[in-house]
Amino acid sequence: MRAEGVQAYIIPSVDQHMVSYLNLVNMLQITSNDVHTYLGSRAPPASTSSDAVVIMDKAGMWTDGRYFNQAGMQMDDNWTLMKDGMPGTPSQAEWLAKELKANDKVGVDANLFSIDRFETMHKELAKSNITLTAVTENLVDEIWTEGRPPLSNATIFVLEMRYTGKSWEDKIKDLREQLISNRATAFIVYKLDEVAWLLNLRGKDVPSNPFFFAFVIVTKDEVRVYVDDSKLTNDVKKHLKDVEISPYNTSVLIADIKAEAVKPNAKIWLSKYASPYSAMDAIGKQDKVLLKDSPIALPKSIKNSIEIKGMKNAYLKDNVAMVEFFYWLKNEVAKGNSGITEMSSVTKLEEFKSAQEGYQGYSFDTIAGFGPNGAIIHYRPEESTNLKITDENTFLVDSGSQFLDGTTDTTRTVHFGTPTPHQKDAYTRVLKGQIDLALTVFPETTQGRFLDVVARKELWRNGLDYRHGTGHGIGMFLGVHEGPQKISIGCPKPWEKPVVPGMFQSDEPGYYEDGKFGIRLETVIMAVDAETKNTFNDVKYVKFEPVSFILVAEHMKALTMIDMCNQQVPYWKKLIDVSIMTPKEIDWLNDYHKQCREKVGKMLKDQKKEDVYKWLVEETEPISTTKTEVNGGQMLAVSLVTISFSFLSLFSLL
Description:
The protein is α+β, with helices and mostly antiparallel strands. The chain folds into three domains: 2-143, Creatine Amidinohydrolase, Chain A, domain 1; 157-300, 3-Layer(aba) Sandwich (Creatine Amidinohydrolase, Chain A, domain 1), CATH 3.40.350; 305-619, Creatinase/methionine aminopeptidase superfamily (Creatine Amidinohydrolase). Helices cover 31% and strands 22% of the residues. The chain is built from 19 helices and 32 strands. The strands form nine sheets. It has a six-stranded mixed sheet, sandwiched between helices. Strands 12-11-10-8-13-14 form a six-stranded mixed sheet, with helices on both faces. Strand 11 (223-226), helix 9 and strand 12 (244-246) form a beta-alpha-beta unit. The longest helix has 30 residues, at 305-334. The chain starts with 7 loop residues before the first strand and ends with a strand.
C-alpha cells in the first residue's frame, strides 16, 4: 500500500467476472474470499457477500445478515465486523472518511469493481477530499506468492440441443438484433453464467458450478472468445466453428476493447452493474459507451419449453434422492446410531444423489446443521463443528444438485424427537409463509421485493423474522443463484426485473435462534400465466407452480387438541401446528403431497425402491380436519393422517 501511495485498499467479494463464488480461490484476481484462504483462521468467514477494507492499522469486513452469526464466531481481534444494512453500521465510504484524512487515496483493482460501484464510491469519497484510484496491480496478488491453488485445467464440453432447446448460433443472432436496435457495435460478456449459456458450453472451473473461465466479445460480424485453448476438445472446436479464439487474459481483453473503441461509430455495450470499471476506463470516451443492463440476463432466466421439461425432470431425480436420504436417516436415528453426524449425513446424501442419471455434483456445498448449527444460515459442517444427529433438536438440510438437464435447490427441516411448542409454532409460520407465497397471484410487472412480505407476514404476526431474502432465481444447469429477478425485501436494485412466466424461483422463508436451532423450508416454484376472472387495464397476471416435491409434515407433531386428548399421533408428525393453518393452506399441502406421491412415487417404483415408496405413501396421506368437543369447548382436531411435513415435501414443485 505504501509503495502504491494509497492509505487504504478495498478487496471486494467479486472476481473479474463480476460474480462471487464461495471458496473460489483459483482466480487471477484476488477477492475477499481469497483473503480468507490466504489468512486461514485469522480471517473473517469466506462468503459470497463480503468486502474487506484494509487501512494501515486496522481492517473491517462488511457482510450481510446471512453471515453475522458465523462472522462473530470466526473473526479475531484484527478484524472489525460491519453488519451491513443494520442501523448504526457505517458504509465503507463513511468509515473511510472517518478513518482517513483529506488528500488520502483509496486503492482498488479496477477489474473487480463494477462501473456503478466505482463511480458511486468515487463520488462519496470525494466529499471528504479522498480519492478513489485504480492501482496497477492487485495488492493481495503481490504478497500471496506461495501456496496459491493452481488455475483449473478442466476441459470444456458441449451441452447438447436436447438440453438447451436453442442453438448458440440462434442466441448470437438474437443478441445481434439487440445490438442493432440499441445502436451498439459490440457487447462484452463478463459473467461466467452468461458465457456458458450463450455458447451452449459448460465446464468445471468453478466448484459446484458448470462454468469455465472465459470472456466473449460479440460484434455485428464477429464472435471472439477469450479462453485457455488447451481446455477446448475437438468437439468444442467444431461446435465453435468460425469463432475466433484468444488467450484468457485480462490484458489481452482490455487491449481488444481499446481497439474496438477507436473504430468509426463505435458504441460498446457495457452493463453498469455487471461490467468492470477497467472496461469503461479502456474505452475512455463516454460517447463510445452504451450503459445498459445485459441483453443476455433476461433471456437466460426465462426458460424455453425444453429447459422447463429438463428442470422438472432434474427436480424429480433430486427429490427421489432426498426422500431416500430422509428415509434412511430417520431409521438410523430411530435405531440409536450414534455415528450419524452432520458430515456423515452429507456423504450419505451425496451417495443417493450420485446414483441418479445425469448427476454432475452439488450445486453448492450442502448446509447440514443440527440444533444450534442450523441457526447459522450458510453453515457448512467441518471437523471442528461437526455435531451428532439425534432426536433432541431440529436438523436443517439445504442441498442442491447439478444435472445435465437442470440445477436444483431444496431445504427441509426435520425433528426426530419431541419439538418444543415454540419450534412447532415457528415451523408452522414458516410453512404458512411458504404456502402463501406459492398461492400468490400478481400482475406481470411485479418485482420480487413486493412479494417478499407475503412470506414474512405470518412470522411478523408473532414478532419473528429472518435475515435473508425469500427467493432467488435458479439457472438451467448453471448457477443455483440467478438474476435478474429475486424475491427479497429492501432497497430496489436497478438491475432487477419482474418475475415473469418461465422463471424458476426459490421460495424459502425461515427462522433462526442463535445458539439454539434454525428452521428453513425451501421449495422451488415456477412462474406461469394465471387465468383471472378480470383483466384490469389489460394487465396479465402471474402465479406460481411448485416444481420440487418433498415431504413437508412428517416430523412436526401438530400442537392441537389431539395432544391434549392424549390421542396417538404417528411419531413423525411433529413440527406442524395445524390449528393455525387455514383450510386453503391445508388444501395446498394436500395437493402438494398428492403430487409427491404421483410424481416422485412413480420414479421410486420405476427404480425398484419399494420400501421408500411405501413410506412416502404413508407420509403423504391427506390431512383432514374435524370438530371435536373437548371440555365443553369446540376445538379443532386434526386427523393428521400422516402429515408428512418433515420433508416439507422434499419435492420442490417445479
